[in-house]
Amino acid sequence: MQNQSIDERAFYRGVLVWLTITGFFAVVASVLHYIEPEPELMDLIVPPIAALTNLGLAVWLMCRPKSILRVIYSALVTALLTLSLPAWFYSLRAQANPDILLIDIFPPISSLLIILIVLVMVMLPPRRAVPIIIAIWTLNALPILSYLLVHQDELWTARGQEMFVSYGLAILLLLVLIPFQQRARLQLERLRRDNSQMHRLAERDALTRQYNRWGGQQLLDEFMQSGARGSIIMLDIDHFKTINDTFGHQTGDSVLQQFSARVNDALRSDGYLIRWGGEEFLVLIHGIAEEDALAVAERLRDATGNKLFVPVGKLTVSGGVTSRRSNDTLESLIARADKALYQAKLNGRDQMVYY
Questions:
Q1: What is residue 308's DSSP assignment?
Q2: Which helix H or strand E contains 100, and what residues bound it?
Q3: Among this protein's residues, is 279 annotated catalytic?
């Protein structure tokens, strides 16, 4: 989840909360049905299965966050079966036995159907939500409404009218609201894109398009909080002041752009390049072992030293390399890399020093 945006993390947590709450309520319903004097067989089977399924999906989501869409659709199928099976079972049972009234035996689950449809509207785009809502409504409302329309004496009772409104009029009202929901969703999506763009601009250096000091600080903070192993490399272009003095600052800016592009191209997906300040860059590499950190630093030095920089020719780079230790803070880690960089400068530049 570390590489996900704030919106994605919020959506992930929302789905996880939904699964946990529905699983918990299914457990409570199971317990209540089991302590009833004469529980129905359907009530003893459906809630426990729903509880196990939802809690299992919650565990699956925690272990495999990228499977969130599969989890959502699995949870919707589970909810659909949990609600539609009782609707058909009790309707057919009341239809087959004149001595049984549907309004007396049907459990109070009509509000759950409305909640399920609202969840579908919120979580899925309208193009996908509409057919799913129609399927949910058909499988749940058809047996109930058909029965009540045939049995007028039950329809005009207080419970019968409540069921008719819940399964008929209320859901039709929700369908009418879908176009408004789509418009609101588009507005939220536009705001999300704008927010993402602003965040990306805020964390990137305008000249090199790499992470700036503020954005790099966020990456480093997350790295330290994760507790994972990794290394940092502090890079400094040798004699960069001479370039600015000789060729001008515009050429100096071009050199920084070329340098950052070459270092970034030499990094793998687990590496992040940060412009730490001026001609100084910091590289954060996740999961790398101590013995491999210096080899990566040498590869970066070769990537920048074996090609000409237009229009100044060849350049060299010095670097300080260090790896995270168990008692490190971010300050101690950076201080150690800075000390190693200083030692590389004292040793004559154009080299990498591990400390």
A1: P
A2: none
A3: yes
The structure tokens 């020093």 sit at: 353
Q: What is the pLDDT of residues 213-246, one digit of tens each?
A: 999 999 999 999 988 899 999 999 999 999 999 9
With the C-alpha atoms ordered 37, 43, 44, 48, is the resulting torsion angle positive or negative? Answer: negative
Q: Which of 279, 280, 290, 291 is catalytic?
A: 279
Tokens standing for residue 205:
């250096």
H/E element holding 226?
Answer: helix 213-226
CATH dotted code for 213-354 = 3.30.70.270
Using alpha carbons only, give the angle 25, 30, 35 rounded to the nearest 5 degrees.
130
Mind listing the pLDDT tens digit for each residue in 282-294?
Answer: 999 998 888 899 9
pTM score > 0.70 for this model? no
Token pair, residue 18, equals 């939904």
CA distance 153 to 157: 7
The token pair that represents 169 in the structure block: 């009029």
Domain range annotation of the chain: 6-200, 213-354
